[in-house]
Structure formats: C-alpha cells, structure tokens
Write a structure and sequence with these properties.
Shape: globular
Order of helices and strands: EEEHEEEHEHEHHHHEHEH
Helix content: 25-40%
Distance between the termini: 16 Å
Number of strands: 10
Structural class: alpha/beta
Radius of gyration: 18 Å
Strand order of the largest sheet: 1-2-4-3-7-8-9-10
Number of helices: 9
Amino acid sequence: MNVATIRLISRVLFMPADATVLLPQKLPEGKCPVLWLLHGACGDHRSYLYSADLDRIVREHSAIIVMPSALNSDYGNYQQFGTGYDFASYFFDELMPFVYATFPASDAPEQNYIEGASMGGFGAALLGLMHPERFAAIGMLGASLRESAFLLPYENSTSEEFRRAALESPKKFPTEYGSPDAGIKLKEVNVITKYPTIRAFLDSPDCMWRRFPEVVRRGVLPEFYVACGTEDLFYPATERFMELADSLGVRDRVHFVIEEGVGHDPAFFDREIVAFAVYFGI
C-alpha cells in the first residue's frame, strides 16, 4: 500500500491538522471505498499504522483508509478552548471534501465507513450519527455511547452548577471510564459542561444515548458494528446498548461481537478493525 501524510492548514481549527491516508498500490479505474479510522485517547493519525493489518483492507478491497489526528477531543466541538477546537466541523467541512477532491475516494454514502477504538469508537458514533446519511456503517470497538439518565435531575442546572457539584463530590455521579465506585472523571465533566446548561448537553451531538433513538425514528440509521470484551470497562454499557437496540427494534442493524475474557486490549481492537472491513466487504 501507499502511505501519504497530509497536513491541512485548517481555517476551522485555526491550526495545522495532520492525517495519514493509505491507498492501494494499484489504483482501480473507478472510485475507492473509504474507511475513516479514528484513534483512541492519547493517540494520533499514526496510532494504527504499524499495529492493525491495514494493508489487508487496502489490498483486498482497493479501499482508502483515512486516519486523522483529533487530540483528546472525543471528536466533538469545543468552543471554549483557545480560538476553538471544533473537530466535528473540521471533519465534515474541510477534511472530507479535501480527501474526495485529492484522492480517488468515493463520496457515495454506501462506500463510506467510519470506525474507531475506545475514544475513536465514541467518535465514530458521534460523527456517524451527526450525519447518518453520509455513512454505510459505524464501528465501535471497546467504546460506549455516552449515557445520560443520571443527568435528568440536573436538567435545569447551569453547567457551572453541575461542574461545582461534580468536582466537589465526584462519587455521586457515575463514570463511563472504570469502576462505578470511582466517580465521574474530569474529562466527562468537561464534555458535559462545555455547553451552557445540562439541557443543552442533552440536546447536543455529544449525548449519543439520545441521538441514537432519534436517528432510528428518522429511518436513516447506518448499520452498527459493536465489538467489546467481557472484561472491558465499557462492557456493562455495551450490554445496555444491546438492550437499547432491542427496545428500538433495530437489533438487525447492530452487529455485536462479544469476546469472553478480553479487556480494553489494543490487540483485540487491531483484529476487530480488520473484522469490521471484512464484515461489510469494504
């Protein structure tokens, strides 16, 4: 495969933005399917380059893989950081058009797929449900839709009120990142309180637990591929997501892969990145 590193001077992010693009050694005559592959926390656009068997996807399916860097943003928009770090806006308004214009990449929704592991899996769900009409499938590996029921008693609170309460008594609030007894983490508080009110967060793209049913009701849900180990910190949330898919009558649109005895394991994620591509025939 051919490996290209691109650096866009982003007008949305007000900074250079890096991405790695993998292309077939021999390009087909037509357009290639595209896999948008998102890294986890503390990673960047090179995170999967030498671990997952990405060459197999590129070689066997004549696919293009695009791996952007997103800091630790959870792939959302942050208005309060510096001049703003609006990754989702950058992704849709700059990166995708650049890739389609520069490479033989298909912009047809049925040939665009998005997946990631851990934070990248959440990002795939966030971006995929923001614009479900642009993707054929969404892959979440060792990730979780951000649940929101615990916020309902605080729906009328300002974000500052919630931040103060959460930081003073973090164990009063559940966490997505570990033991239920550990309490809510600072990153979770920051995601919620980047909006002016708790209600604004609940209505935002970051609140995936609410966005998923909305997309189902609109009849535009892409297929989902959800892989998780039983020892993963996100496994309980994955079980609840199974129940949510069942309750909405879309279990046939959500393919679950559950691996006994596996934790939040990069080797498992590497295998499932390829399994996602094989499953959908990218």
